[in-house]
Amino acid sequence: MKKNAKAASHDGHDHECGPACEHHPAAAGGIYLVSPSSAVRDPQTVELARERLAAEGFKTALDRAALATHQRFAGTDKQRLAGLARAAAQKLPIVMATRGGYGLSRLLPYIDWTAMADSGKRFVGMSDFTAFNLALLARTGAVSYTGATAVRDFGGKRTDALTVALFGEIMRGELEILSFETRDADAVDARGVLWGGNLATLMSLLGTPYFPKVRGGILFLEDVAEHPYRIERMLAQLAQAGVLQKQKAILLGGFSDYKLAAHDQGYDLPEVIKWLRREVKVPVVTGLPYGHGDLKATLPIGQKVGIATERGLAHLVIDEHHH
């Protein structure tokens, strides 16, 4: 896989793009902010996110129910479904979730997936939004995005410069290759449909009409606050359901904020990865900059991509058109 042009390295994560890689705010388009999952705790974080997105060239509009609250949710089910419908019908090209949390799973049977796909919007979110991403792919084959969210990545005390840059580049269609450091990668050079997201949310869709049937895909996974044994249990279920063996590669992002116990006696995440390799015989690549940490790439779910590794590096080819 040839590289076209290489941007400067940031903490070992290179992002490569073509001649359009200069910052072009006018080309960014606009973002409609919607809350399909948990309630926004502090409205000021959304306002700060809007200011920072504007500085990146993205004008924003806030759905009228985006700050609603009902129990733990951002409004009732009816309100949140109406918000998604408005998001698909309005004029701005990008629809971004304010945050994740929980709430999309119970909405899936009531979303008009054809309307979502036909809208042509670039839907983007993360964590609980994995349910939307995967359901959209399963029901329509449409591409959507996972990575940055308004509150988490644009509304906090600080932003991660590379996270912001990668979001802008992929939304403007500039990102061709995402290169990242990997200390533990199997040799692979493959192409396939990129899919995945939050592991626990993905697992909640297994056996439902909202779980994509991807063969020969490139599956990427992350999670937060899940002990390694819970991660292994979910991976075991995916393996026993025959899902993992059908993939060309498995990319592992961040698995953060868990605590090991004394009785684990050396059982940790690296041991889970060793088990995974023994169990499924599919190339595994670690170090994908994606997860619940500060640094995250925004990735296209449902798009055909390439993955290749060399010593200490992996290259995710986002734009296959030029390769």
UniProtKB/TrEMBL annotation:
Basic and acidic residues: bias regions: 8-21
Enzyme Commission number(s) of this protein: 3.4.17.13
Keywords recorded for this protein, A-Z: Carboxypeptidase, Hydrolase, Protease, Serine protease
GO function term, MF aspect, one: muramoyltetrapeptide carboxypeptidase activity
Keyword flag Flavoprotein: no
GO biological process: proteolysis
Domain LD-carboxypeptidase C-terminal: 191-305
One Pfam family linked to the record: Peptidase_S66C
Tagged with keyword Coiled coil: no
Region of interest (Disordered), ranges: 1-21
InterPro entries: Carboxypeptidase_A_C_sf, Class_I_gatase-like, LdcA_N, Peptidase_S66_N, Peptidase_S66C, S66_fam
Enzyme category, top tier: hydrolase
Domain of life: Bacteria
Gene3D superfamilies, A to Z: Class I glutamine amidotransferase-like (3.40.50.10740), LD-carboxypeptidase A C-terminal domain-like (3.50.30.60)
Domain spans labelled LD-carboxypeptidase N-terminal: 31-147
Active site: S127, E222, H292
Record-linked CDD domains: Peptidase_S66
UniProt family annotation: Belongs to the peptidase S66 family.
Protein's name according to its UniProt entry: LD-carboxypeptidase
Organism in which the protein naturally occurs: Bordetella pseudohinzii
Record lineage: Bacteria, Pseudomonadati, Pseudomonadota, Betaproteobacteria, Burkholderiales
The gene coding this protein: ldcA_1
